[in-house]
């Protein structure tokens, strides 16, 4: 990896901020889809922070190599945000269950994480939400690529 791959750039910053914003808006769209009485806590903040990380590390690293790479970087960044968010939120829910002594072993905990992630993924199968995530990923990738050409 060249030394410049870790350097902060305007394209990385833009991709991180836009993906954090997309994570926040998508979190707001998920709230009505969940069962009534769900305690969300720091749901939006966690997804925005994950958006910052995925935008910087996944999208920003792949910008500046052409429009098709920028497009695929945006879609890959959104996919990584969704997968990472599903995993971390499922892990948190499993830890809550373990503290209530409803999960007793390591393997049962791992299986529970994937069961919870599957339930959450089925909630995400909502056409406007999928459209927002795909459209946002395309926009972030192409806009980030434009920024990398414009200010490099």
Automatic annotation (TrEMBL):
<feature type="transmembrane region" description="Helical">
    <location>
        <begin position="42"/>
        <end position="59"/>
    </location>
</feature>
<keyword id="KW-0472">Membrane</keyword>
<feature type="transmembrane region" description="Helical">
    <location>
        <begin position="71"/>
        <end position="91"/>
    </location>
</feature>
<protein>
    <recommendedName>
        <fullName>Tellurium resistance protein</fullName>
    </recommendedName>
</protein>
<feature type="transmembrane region" description="Helical">
    <location>
        <begin position="12"/>
        <end position="30"/>
    </location>
</feature>
<feature type="transmembrane region" description="Helical">
    <location>
        <begin position="129"/>
        <end position="147"/>
    </location>
</feature>
<keyword id="KW-1133">Transmembrane helix</keyword>
<dbReference type="InterPro" id="IPR047784">
    <property type="entry name" value="TrgA"/>
</dbReference>
<keyword id="KW-0812">Transmembrane</keyword>
């Amino acid at each position: 990896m060249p030394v410049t791959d870790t350097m902060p750039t305007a394209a990385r910053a833009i991709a991180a901020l836009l993906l954090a914003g997309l994570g926040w808006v998508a979190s707001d769209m998920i709230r009505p889809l969940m069962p009534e009485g769900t305690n969300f806590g720091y749901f939006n903040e966690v997804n925005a922070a994950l958006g910052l990380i995925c935008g910087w590390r996944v999208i920003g690293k792949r910008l500046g190599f052409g429009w098709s790479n920028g497009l695929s970087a945006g879609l890959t960044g959104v996919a990584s945000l969704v997968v990472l968010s599903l995993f971390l939120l499922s892990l948190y829910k499993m830890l809550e269950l373990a503290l209530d002594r409803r999960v007793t072993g390591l393997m049962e905990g791992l299986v529970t994480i994937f069961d919870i992630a599957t339930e959450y993924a089925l909630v995400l199968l909502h056409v406007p939400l999928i459209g927002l995530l795909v459209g946002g990923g395309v926009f972030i990738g192409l806009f980030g690529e434009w920024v990398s050409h414009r200010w490099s």
